[in-house]
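hey team, just a heads up i'm posting the complex here instead of the shared drive bc the drive is being weird again. everything in one block, sequence lines first with there labels, then the predicted structure for the whole assembly after. its two chains so it's a bit long, scroll down
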Amino acid sequence: MSEMVHSVPHDGTDAEARPVFAEERRILGIRASSWPGIIAPVVIGILMLSAWEAVVRIKGIPPYILPGPILIAQTLWSDWGTLSGSLLITLRITFAALTAAIVVGVALAIIFTQSKWLEKSLFPYAVILQVTPVVSIAPLIIIWVGDINLSLLICAWIVAFFPILSNTILGLNSADHNLINLFQLYRASRWQTLRYLRLPAALPYFLGGLKISGGLALIGAVVAEFVAGTGGSASGLAYRILESGYRLQIPRMFAALIMISLTGIAIFFLTSWIAHLCLRNWHESAVRREN
Amino acid sequence: MTIAVGAATRPLVSIRNVSKQFANGTVAIRGVNLDLRDGEFVSLLGPSGCGKSTLLRIIAGLGAPSAGSVEWPTAAHDASGQAHPDLGFVFQDPTLMPWANTLKNTMLPLTLAGVGKSEAEARSAEMLALVGLKGFEKSYPRELSGGMKMRVSIARALVTHPKILLMDEPFAALDEITRHRLNDDLLTLWWQNRFTAVFVTHSVFESVYLSQRIVVMAARPGRVMADLANEAPYPRDALFRTSAEYAHLCRVASGTLREAIAA
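-- predicted structure starts here --
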């Protein structure tokens, strides 16, 4: 092939098609325009907490009915030893369940999209597993499995795996039809079509499912532990809440509750950040545009 | 413009009495006979619904014909007698993988054929330079204009150096300036590499500018109405586009197309 001399082709629409990002001023590493979005909810939070503290003090509400935020913070500090141990246990179950949900969800989704019959035969059971309230089957699982940690893991997994399964199936089937034709033209194997086309096309959908499943794995872990109600030193945050309730240690109950909420928020940000890292170069949801 | 005479040499593709009926009963094409010769530039010209895209997809092997056959006398065949022609296909949309950059998109046919990474990258970069996209190897499709995306699509189709390039209204969605530019560049690529080009279009002007042979099709059911030869010499350029000869050829082709639609 001989050379064809070309400069950059001026196809008329270059200028509008190539987004130009003006470099924005940063404060503490965060874009100046992002700060109002951070400050506003923080201000609201401070106002709410102050109002709460004020009501508790002015009305003289006893701590076993409603503790003020300052007392809760003090409890969080003083009971950190017990609470952090429980947090670790809850986190361990949550992430083990989430990992299992990812592995099983993605593997099943791939198997289902390779065989329509397998999908038709098995998918209804995945739905049944999803719609059955975990509180109602948790006691059975605990009886059958015996090992309490494994039971909790299975319960959390049941709650977490469905969004990953259904989203990944949707994604694997969403590959562009012309691209599928192109792969056929070049006689791509099933494995090549999966590796180079279906899996990348499914990535945004999978990550959407992951965001939902991250929170659900935590909820599943907590709910299952409530049902199990097992005590002892090796118990998670849900048991700390139960135990504090029995002993009327309401500030500690609130402290454990706050730790669960903060964990949920952290998991959400973690999964959102992973999604952003994976999609920022190409997917509409993660691309910044100026217009 | 005269009626094309059959060439003495063996055709590259031989389309024999091909019909296609879809599952819903629609007859897309009926009884098409067509020989495509090595190295020629053929346009399939017709109104929408005349089955020209369907015919192109059948030539590509995407969907078998309901009746008739597509033969590749000179192509390699596998043990089951299935032809494996070297072909490239350009869709109406650029059809790029949004998650892959320009180089990775162009490399795809080579990757699927098991060509080693460094060789595939080198060949793709060379092809991208030929379509005028040197320096855009790392760009993602969303960063490119419509015309540039189409260039990537053409580079991907040509990266395997196919014997035949099938194009399905590739420039229909582009503005006129971009389309003219891509027409010129396509002709240059064809002139230098001498692949067989089959170009589906509904534009008389585009078909006359590009091709040596214009196959005029009519709709309901899709069928071949005329096979016009266009003997205007290459290289064709902007001068040709404004010549009296070009205007005359367009008038003849338009007339044939009008008759075909009325028939």
